[in-house]
Amino acid sequence: MFRNNYDNDAVTFSPQGRIFQIEYSEEAVKQGSVVVGIASKKHVVLCAIKRNAEELSSYQKKLFAIDEHCGIAIAGLTSDARVLSNFMKQQALGHRLTYGRAMPVASLVDEIGTKAQINTQMYGKRPYGVGLLVAGVDEDGTHLFEFKPSGMTEELVGCAIGARSQMARTYLEKNIDAFADASKEELIKHGLQALHETLVQDKELTIDNTAVGVTGFKEGSKNKAEPFKLYEAAEVKQWLDAISESKEGNEGEGMDVDE
Amino acid sequence: MFRNNYDNDAVTFSPQGRIFQIEYSEEAVKQGSVVVGIASKKHVVLCAIKRNAEELSSYQKKLFAIDEHCGIAIAGLTSDARVLSNFMKQQALGHRLTYGRAMPVASLVDEIGTKAQINTQMYGKRPYGVGLLVAGVDEDGTHLFEFKPSGMTEELVGCAIGARSQMARTYLEKNIDAFADASKEELIKHGLQALHETLVQDKELTIDNTAVGVTGFKEGSKNKAEPFKLYEAAEVKQWLDAISESKEGNEGEGMDVDE
Amino acid sequence: MFRNNYDNDAVTFSPQGRIFQIEYSEEAVKQGSVVVGIASKKHVVLCAIKRNAEELSSYQKKLFAIDEHCGIAIAGLTSDARVLSNFMKQQALGHRLTYGRAMPVASLVDEIGTKAQINTQMYGKRPYGVGLLVAGVDEDGTHLFEFKPSGMTEELVGCAIGARSQMARTYLEKNIDAFADASKEELIKHGLQALHETLVQDKELTIDNTAVGVTGFKEGSKNKAEPFKLYEAAEVKQWLDAISESKEGNEGEGMDVDE
Amino acid sequence: MFRNNYDNDAVTFSPQGRIFQIEYSEEAVKQGSVVVGIASKKHVVLCAIKRNAEELSSYQKKLFAIDEHCGIAIAGLTSDARVLSNFMKQQALGHRLTYGRAMPVASLVDEIGTKAQINTQMYGKRPYGVGLLVAGVDEDGTHLFEFKPSGMTEELVGCAIGARSQMARTYLEKNIDAFADASKEELIKHGLQALHETLVQDKELTIDNTAVGVTGFKEGSKNKAEPFKLYEAAEVKQWLDAISESKEGNEGEGMDVDE
Amino acid sequence: MFRNNYDNDAVTFSPQGRIFQIEYSEEAVKQGSVVVGIASKKHVVLCAIKRNAEELSSYQKKLFAIDEHCGIAIAGLTSDARVLSNFMKQQALGHRLTYGRAMPVASLVDEIGTKAQINTQMYGKRPYGVGLLVAGVDEDGTHLFEFKPSGMTEELVGCAIGARSQMARTYLEKNIDAFADASKEELIKHGLQALHETLVQDKELTIDNTAVGVTGFKEGSKNKAEPFKLYEAAEVKQWLDAISESKEGNEGEGMDVDE
Amino acid sequence: MFRNNYDNDAVTFSPQGRIFQIEYSEEAVKQGSVVVGIASKKHVVLCAIKRNAEELSSYQKKLFAIDEHCGIAIAGLTSDARVLSNFMKQQALGHRLTYGRAMPVASLVDEIGTKAQINTQMYGKRPYGVGLLVAGVDEDGTHLFEFKPSGMTEELVGCAIGARSQMARTYLEKNIDAFADASKEELIKHGLQALHETLVQDKELTIDNTAVGVTGFKEGSKNKAEPFKLYEAAEVKQWLDAISESKEGNEGEGMDVDE
Amino acid sequence: MFRNNYDNDAVTFSPQGRIFQIEYSEEAVKQGSVVVGIASKKHVVLCAIKRNAEELSSYQKKLFAIDEHCGIAIAGLTSDARVLSNFMKQQALGHRLTYGRAMPVASLVDEIGTKAQINTQMYGKRPYGVGLLVAGVDEDGTHLFEFKPSGMTEELVGCAIGARSQMARTYLEKNIDAFADASKEELIKHGLQALHETLVQDKELTIDNTAVGVTGFKEGSKNKAEPFKLYEAAEVKQWLDAISESKEGNEGEGMDVDE
User: Fold this and answer.
1) Which residues of D touch C60 (CB under 8 A)?
2) Closest residue by Cα to residue G6 from E14, F77, G18, E123
3) Which of B155, C163, D5, F182 is most buried by its number of CB atoms within 10 A?
4) Cβ contact (<8 Å) for A150 and E24?
5) Which residues of E221-239 are buried (b: 16+ CB within 10 A; e: fewer)?
């Protein structure tokens, strides 16, 4: 009978140099509903499928504004996400108060990476059980970061995490070349299309279960940020309709939605 | 012989990314007697079945006022609930003293969510073994929140937690459309009817085992809160009588109680 | 071979959401000799059987005055009871010093409930292994509370805890209607009668093994408290004689001692 | 194969509500040589058999003066006893310095009871492995207390703890009526006789292995304390001779030493 | 069935005096992609293969500037590397602020060695799961250090760590005599050639997966440092082309790339 | 298969009330080479066999001066002994500084007893693995104490601890009557003779492996202390010669060295 | 199946009074390459074989200067040695700053012994896995100490620790009489010869793998210290040549190198 002796805490290496509890914590991310992020030169969008355990509840929140220039999408343990998002809000606010301007997105992401690492090297704590996509803009341009429970953070042009997110990533990879110069509308449609790929049969994106968040630069401006904005319910209808039409025309193949 | 190696504390992930101790703590909620909450645009009601272990005791308290604008219903470990309700009272009081007005319900709920999460990420502690329904009003309107031992909090229009609460939830789902515009009286009757659905054969709601709590806006006012008020004993008789009649007329089918 | 994996500390939930160490601690209460409490509108009495491990010792103390208006009866680990009773004395004294009047009984009971809960949620501690009956009077009237190792507290009109206390509770339930308006003398006799029910064959209540504690309002006064008073040895003889006679007349049936 | 899962620390209850480590610690008391205490209205005596592991050592000390009005006899772990006796000396001294008079014996005993209880409710500590008999006088009269590792303390008129102490207790029980009014000399003889009962065959009480400690009120005074005094070696000869004679006359039956 | 009892934490020696958790942590280094470092008298170069888990991500960063005169290459857990590199930046900055000049490389390396050792001698922590190559210049000349999770640090003239790094080390050993006097360009080409040796079949170094970092003394100066500079993407093309040509001419044998 | 569950730490009692780790720590004393102590009315001597693991080392030190009036002999873990002897030196020095005179030997011994007891009642520590003989003089006369890892301390007239010390104790017991009035020379010879008894065949006491320490009162003075003095190498030759002669004359029987 | 229950931490005694983790830590010393130390009346020399895991690395450092008058040789865990040597440097420096002169070698050694002992008596730490030879001079003359992981320290005239050090010790023992009056050159040659004895077949001492450290008194001075000096590479050639010649002449027998 096989008995793994090295997977009970995050302070024990396996003989192969692996830390299983960190790996297991990344499985918790896969338990969450899928979120997708895409960055163009001008915008970053986050799209999420909101789960609804029972009809009575409003749908679970998946997107959160952190600061004017920055928002996150979460997949995994919601209450762990609250801790991290509160921490990010405090960091961002503190930076504004100290320096009089928005915190660079990479610095903000670095802070949660460092915070999360501590929990992977101290007995009696556990890694956070949540993954984040962080969307933001700053003087360096638009940014999309993935944060993992291990504390690892990585900048990407497109990403999907959560249940069945592999399908979304496949879609993103196929269309990666279209992102850099895409308009805000196009980006959103790509994001929703990627979400759509993850649905199990008979499920559809609806105005109830879909959320979109966008930040970016103002039209015609190189460095004026548009505040992070959440779109829900009726606001997402136009885009859902658009991808629905587009999908009908592209059934069965990797979609080429762009104009 | 199956031996689960990952379910002894809340700081260990299973290989599938689950934290069993959090899941087990949510079972503790199901050990408590059922409580129901419903929110309309103007009111929020909490209804509870009070257990009575032996005849000598007064019935176990299930509803507690937290502040003028806010009350809770509990299901699970009573002494854990005391800790959380004392904490909420202090938070609400502190807010009043600092800002001169009632604490927004969402903020209050956020505080206990954050407090509870700590116990799910630190060895040597355990998650709280109690679930709460939080009813309140503030400038944003009426609110009904569910709090779970994991620290997760969620806003809903109707909810039931505790033993056999699934039956109550089924009732609420069937009647969900009637809640938003229901009067206070109607809301209470819906709540009691939902409670009634959870009773095992031969059990009935009585003036002894039933408690009702209500908060909301004053008649004809948009933002003047009615203080959270508990109704017990004789005060609940009228409503019990009402649903009893109504039930006789609706035996055997999903009730349509509304006028 | 069945091996319970979840019952070694109070910070582990079983898969059913139970915390076995809390349940086991309540077994410790059943190891103590029985104590009975009854409240009327005017008085609260505590009656106890004192054990005597060997002839040389005076009988183990079971009743303790906490403050002028309040006393307790204990069942379980005597040295745990000392800790709690010292704590209560300090709380009560502190309240008097700060506010210039007696601490409300419910507040006092709340304090020990909160203190005891801590030990049920922290690794390395254990729940208290003692149950208490708290008798007191304050502006709200007479009070009888039960305190359990879990930290749960409950107000009752009559209660019995400790070894074979179920027999006493049965007696109390049969006679519950007589308590509210009973005189002090009658209450005491009910308490002793309830104690008597728990005796194993050939054992009797004697002036050596019986203790009685009473608090209440002064004759003809609504809010003047009579200090908590202990009756032992010869002082309890009259009541023992009374119930002895009464019992002879009522052998074999639920007693109706009242006038 | 039976495997007790609940007996490794003092913070785990067994399913029956027992704490085995506390019970085991009380076994440590039985590993110590026997000590006997008896209280009359005027005096309290402590008698001890001193063990002598090897001829080279002076005999192990069993009796210690704590303060002028108070002394102890120990059975169990000598180095644990040192900790407790040092603590008692500090308490007694502190009381004298603060209040200008001797500490009431019951208060002193209460302090060690409370101190010992802490070790029964904290992981990483263990109960003290020693039992004490505390003899003292104060304004309330003479006192003899037993202290147990659990923190339990009890006032008695006669007591014996340590190896084979049951035999001594049996003697004491038989003669209990003679103690209250016995003279100091008589009390000592009763104590030594009780010690004698615990001896295994061929062992005798000698001036080397016997120690006696006495405190009490001065002849003809109601409240003037005689300082706690230890009698060893030649000083105990007269009493040993006396009981030896008396014993010859009473061979084979429960002795009635009294005049 | 063999069961290793000594490999669960870094505070337990095996009977042979080994600490397995330290050894296992060094396996974590081998999980990272390979990095190579070479020092000449005038320059130090770091070369890395960047992994790309999926197409969407930019490649994982492997080289980091610590201070003007110093940079690192990492292999192993990225989030552990972040902690160490942040620590090094703080140390280097603090030294500059305190002494007004760059921190000697050996001192900087000593600091992380000492920091890492702590984690190998304290229960509840784990060794860092990352290896570093530290390249820097100071008054003593050029320096290349290897840092291991054990806290061991060692100065070398050439080194390679990470997956399949043995092949790179073999290349370095064959060409060791050429390093001391090599030009910057030659050093880089040696580094890339060493990297190339570690590739599995069909893999190639590309401008996307290759990174180069260089520090050294300014042309014609003995002690003026050239700031640590990273070369990526198009900047590495010339060198990749160079080794590609050279490789064609040297297929099948240990390369002698030098002029 | 017998598995002792109670012998892994000093905070667990066995069901018989024993603490095995304390008992095991006393075995560590038996691993040390033997030391002997004897007290007369005027002097205290310590004699030791020094082990020599290899020829290169000077012999292991066994005797240490603590203060002018006091020295110790050790058997067991040398580095534990260092901790205790440093502690004693500090205590003795502190006493001199505070009170202007030497610390009473019993107080000094009491301090290490108390210090050692702590390690027997706290998880995560272990009892000291060393036994001490403490020789000293003060106003009460000469003193010889034995200190055990349990924290137990005992005054004796003669004692031997360490490997095969039973043989030495047997010698001491046979000659115990000669000690009280023996001269310093005689005491030393008794000590060496006792040491000699513990030797395995073919081993002899030599000037290299024998150490002697003496303190006492100055010739003709009742309370002027002779500083603790160590005799090694050539200084012990006279005594070794003396007992060698004496032994020749007494071969085969318990020696009667005295004049 | 044998299962050792007592060897997992340094705070558990085996039933025989042994602490296995301390013994295992001393095995770690044997994992290090061998170092040799020899003291004459005028000088102390340390000689070491430096290991070279791979050709690229400079050889591992084995000798370190601590202060002007003192140096060490290490065998075992290099990063543990760094901690101890940094500690020694701080102690020595602190002593110089406080007292204006070099720290006595014995005091310095005592400090690390005391520091190391702590790690053998506290759960959650481990003994240091390194042995040291400490060479120094002070007012008392020349000193060579061995430090062991247990905290034990011992003064010797010659010593060797590390892998296969037994062969070196045998050499030293054979030649011990020659050391006291040997010149510096002779001492070094003895040290190197002892090192040579530990080599496995076909291995030779070379200028790359051999290091020598020397401290002592200046020529013709009794108390002027020569600063601790390291000799490496070409500097050791003369001595290697010398012992090589000498060895040729003495092949096959215990060498008598001395003049």
Assistant:
1) 154
2) G18
3) F182
4) no
5) eeeebbebebbbeeebeeb
**ipTM summary value:** 0.89
Among the residues of chain D, which ranges form H helices? 20-30, 78-99, 105-118, 165-174, 184-197, 237-250
At residue D144, what is the residue type?
L
**How far apart are alpha carbons E137 and E144 in whole angstroms?**
9
Distance CA B16, CA C26 (A): 36
Give me the total of CB pairs closer than 8 Å, taking one residue from chain C and one from chain D. Answer: 99
Nearest to A27 among B15, B113, B117 (CB): B15
Summarize pLDDT for A240-254 with one digit per residue, the tens.
998 887 766 554 444
pLDDT in tens, C124-155: 999 999 999 999 999 999 999 999 999 999 99
- Is it the case that residue G223 has pLDDT exceeding 80? no
Instruction: Enumerate the residues of chain G whose CB falls inside 8 A of the CB of residue E121.
Output: 80, 119, 125-126, 128
pLDDT at residue B223 is higher than 80: no
Chains that touch F (3 or more CB pairs under 8 A): D, G
Q: In chain D, pLDDT over 90 holds for what percent of residues?
A: 79
Q: For residue E76, list chain A residues with Cβ-Cβ distance below 8 A.
A: 17
CA angle G89, G90, G92 (to 5 degrees): 65
Query: What DSSP designation does E199 have?
Result: P
Best CA proximity match to B127, nearest among B144, B115, B110: B115
Residue A229 — very low, low, confident or very high, per pLDDT cuts 50/70/90? Answer: very high
% of chain C exceeding 90 in pLDDT: 79
For the question of whether the overall pTM of this predicted structure is more than 0.80, the answer is yes
pLDDT of E59:
72
Residue identified by tokens 């491990």 is C53
F155·D58 Cβ contact <8 A: yes
- pLDDT beyond 90 at A57: no
Please answer yes or no on whether E13 and G27 come within 8 Å at the CB atom.
yes
Mean predicted confidence (pLDDT) in E204-224: 89
Q: For residue E191, what are the CA distances in angstroms to E40, E81, E182, E239?
A: 12, 22, 12, 10
Inter-axis angle of helices G237-250 and G184-197, to 10 degrees? Answer: 60
CB G151 within 8 A of CB G17: no
Q: Which of D14, D55, D123 to mutate to test the interface with F (most CBs of F within 10 A)?
A: D55
First-last CA distance in chain A: 58
Tell me how many residue pairs between chain D and chain F have CB atoms under 8 A apart: 98
Contact B122, A123 (CB under 8 A): no
Listed in sequence order, the residues at least 6 apart from D15 whose beta carbon sits closer than 8 Å to its beta carbon are C7, C20, C24, C27, D6
Q: Which residues of B touch C (CB under 8 A)?
A: 3-4, 7-9, 20-21, 24-31, 54-58, 60, 76-80, 82-83, 86, 119, 123-129
Contact D126 F158 (CB under 8 A): no
Integer angstrom CA distances of residue F29 from D79, D129, D202, E146, F34: 18, 23, 33, 46, 9
What does the alpha-carbon distance between residue C71 and residue C63 come to, in Å, rounded to a whole number?
A: 7
Give the separation between CA F230 and CA F46, rounded to whole angstroms: 9
What is the band of D246 on the pLDDT scale with cuts at 50, 70, 90? confident
Query: In chain C, which residues have their Cβ closer than 8 Å to the Cβ of B86?
Result: 114
Lookup: tokens for E173: 């050993």
Q: Least CA distance to A119: which residue of chain B?
A: B121
What 3-state class would DSSP assign to A159?
strand
Amino acid G95 reads: H
In this predicted structure, which of A4-8, E181-185, E224-228, F228-232 has the lowest mean pLDDT? A4-8
Quick check: A184 and A217 in contact, CB under 8 A? no
* Stretch G130-139: mean pLDDT: 97
DSSP E156: B
Among E37, E36, E6, which residue's Cα sits nearest to residue E23?
E6
Question: How close E10 comes to chain G (CA, Å)?
Answer: 8
